[in-house]
Structure formats: structure tokens, C-alpha cells
């Protein structure tokens, strides 16, 4: 691990498990999120999409081809079709790396089946400590507002659409689409939103985000080439959540720049590097 400069407040950086502990366990499975909670992650990141019959499921790609033994677009499949697929076997287990804990998480149908957002919210509700959620809406244009409507309904059911009295929100909604974030703000004004960005466009170069958004979500590549961006965002009163930070050198860069959250496929290793593992 890379030694960090002495005296930095590493504990204030939130560590977010990207698609669960997805370096070790197939992404977006219940097993990956259970492992992330065991690993000590402060928050869980997940992508949500809508099935043909209107269920929100945690799947990154438009199609299920890469992460399951099935084929086709999530939006064209019903939940029952997805439930028949195996989302656990596509990722080859590296015998040298696998531990007994990791292997155990592959047992049982539910652990490797498609994960609904509802099941993920249950997992978080049952956790014996506070675990936050960073939920990303995918392809809001395709679904014409339905993803946001369903997401807000689901969060309301779990009492997660607003912070409890005197608390900060346990959930934030992220998107590359400012339109999607606007829909969330309109339906749940107290829910924090995160504007994800792959490039620094001239519009956001000066640190100004879309209206109502208080958190910037730049990719780590932006920080490597524009290290002053974090300070600029902080000066504008924004927080900065960076993805996807897996390399020790990038973790060190994030610490040096004072980012607020690190989104990573390997929360255990990042927590260790931050002196929390
Ligand atoms: O956490 C944000 C990050 O997940 C955005 O990229 O493609 O992994 O969803 P992607
Ligand atoms: Ca994502």
C-alpha cells in the first residue's frame, strides 16, 4: 500500500462499494453487497434499470449478456425472465485469490440471482449499522421518467426519500443526466443528487453544477488531469464523490485533494489504505 501523508483526516472520506465488493464477487449480486457490508463500506453504489413489467433491478449494462448466462435488454425482459438467469457464474473465480468467505458467498440461488432494488433496500434496512446508498439512474431518456417515479415510490416505502430528523440523508441519487436529477429533485426535494461527469465541459469547468445539485461525481481521470477541479467545486460549496478509484496511487490523489467520497470496486483495500481496515 502507498503511505499517505501524515495528518490527513482519512476518516472523513466516505468509502462507497461500487456495484458491491465487485472486484471479488460478481457485481450487483446480493453476495457482492453482503460482502461490501462485511468489508466495512460506508455506502453501496448500484445502477437501476426498469424491466419490461416495471420492476427496478440493479444491472449496469443495457443488456444482461455480460453479467449473466442470458441474453437481451433488461427493458425487454420481465422480472421472471431475469430471475431464471444466473448472475454469478460469469466472473471466473481466481483460485489463488478466493478465500473461504468469498466462496461461501457463491452458494445459494438468491445470492447469484438478479437483484431487485427492493431486496437491496431490505439488505440495508437489516444491516446492524448505518449503510448509505448511492443509486444511479441509467438511461432516463429511454424510460421517460418511469425510473425516477418508481425509484421514489420505492424509497418512500422504506422511508428513505428524506432524512430523519437531525440526520443526513442515507440515500443519494446519481446520474449522468441532469434531466433525471431534476425529476428526482421535483419528487423528493430533500434527497441529495449527484451529477456524474466523464469529462469537464466548459459549462462545469468553473465548478458550477446543474441547478439544485450539491454533489459532483467526476471520474478519477478528470482529477488526474485537472487536480484543481476539487478545490473549485469545494469553493462553490459542493461535495465531490469520485469514481471508480481502485489503484492505491489514485486513492492517495483523492486523499491529497480532499475528496468527500471514494467509489471503489475494492472497499476493503481502500479502507485499509485509509487506515480504517
Ligand atoms: O459511481 C459512478 C459510476 O458508477 C459511473 O459509471 O459506468 O460504472 O455506472 P458506471
Ligand atoms: Ca454506476
Automatic annotation (TrEMBL):
The record's GO molecular-function terms, alphabetically, read: phosphoric diester hydrolase activity
By its UniProt entry, which PROSITE patterns does this protein fall under? GP_PDE (PS51704)
Q: What are the transmembrane regions?
A: none
One GO biological process this protein is involved in is: lipid metabolic process
Organism listed in the record: Wenjunlia tyrosinilytica
Q: Where is the GP-PDE domain?
A: 13-274
Name listed for the protein in its UniProt record: Glycerophosphoryl diester phosphodiesterase
Gene3D superfamilies, sorted? Phosphatidylinositol (PI) phosphodiesterase (3.20.20.190)
What taxonomic ancestry is recorded? Bacteria, Bacillati, Actinomycetota, Actinomycetes, Kitasatosporales
Amino acid at each position: 500500500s502507498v503511505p499517505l501523508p501524515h495528518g490527513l483526516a482519512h476518516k472523513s472520506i466516505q468509502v462507497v462499494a461500487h456495484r458491491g465488493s465487485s472486484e471479488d464477487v460478481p457485481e450487483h449480486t446480493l453476495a457482492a453487497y453482503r460482502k461490501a457490508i462485511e468489508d466495512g463500506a460506508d455506502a453501496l453504489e448500484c445502477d437501476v434499470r426498469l424491466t419490461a413489467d416495471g420492476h427496478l433491478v440493479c444491472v449496469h449494462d443495457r443488456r444482461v449478456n455480460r453479467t449473466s448466462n442470458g441474453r437481451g435488454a433488461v427493458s425487454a425482459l420481465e422480472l421472471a425472465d431475469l430471475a431464471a438467469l444466473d448472475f454469478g457464474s460469469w466472473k471466473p473465480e481466481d483460485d489463488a485469490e478466493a478465500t473461504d468467505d468469498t466462496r461461501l458467498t457463491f452458494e445459494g440461488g438468491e445470492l447469484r440471482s438478479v437483484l431487485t432494488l427492493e431486496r437491496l433496500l431490505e439488505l440495508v434496512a437489516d444491516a446492524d449499522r448505518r449503510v448509505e446508498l448511492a443509486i444511479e439512474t441509467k438511461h432516463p431518456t429511454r424510460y421517460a421518467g418511469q425510473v425516477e417515479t418508481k425509484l421514489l415510490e420505492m424509497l418512500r416505502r422504506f422511508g428513505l426519500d428524506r432524512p430523519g430528523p437531525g440526520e443526513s440523508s442515507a440515500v443519494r441519487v446519481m446520474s449522468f443526466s441532469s434531466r433525471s436529477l431534476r425529476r428526482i429533485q421535483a419528487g423528493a426535494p430533500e434527497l441529495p443528487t449527484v451529477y456524474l461527469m466523464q469529462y469537464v465541459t466548459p459549462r462545469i469547468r468553473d465548478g458550477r453544477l446543474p441547478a439544485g445539485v450539491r454533489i459532483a461525481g467526476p471520474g478519477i481521470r478528470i482529477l488526474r488531469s485537472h487536480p484543481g477541479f476539487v478545490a473549485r467545486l469545494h469553493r462553490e460549496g459542493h461535495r465531490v464523490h469520485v469514481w471508480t478509484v481502485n489503484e492505491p496511487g489514485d486513492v492517495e490523489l483523492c486523499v491529497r485533494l480532499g475528496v468527500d467520497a471514494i467509489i471503489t470496486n475494492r472497499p476493503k483495500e481502500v479502507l485499509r489504505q485509509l487506515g480504517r481496515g
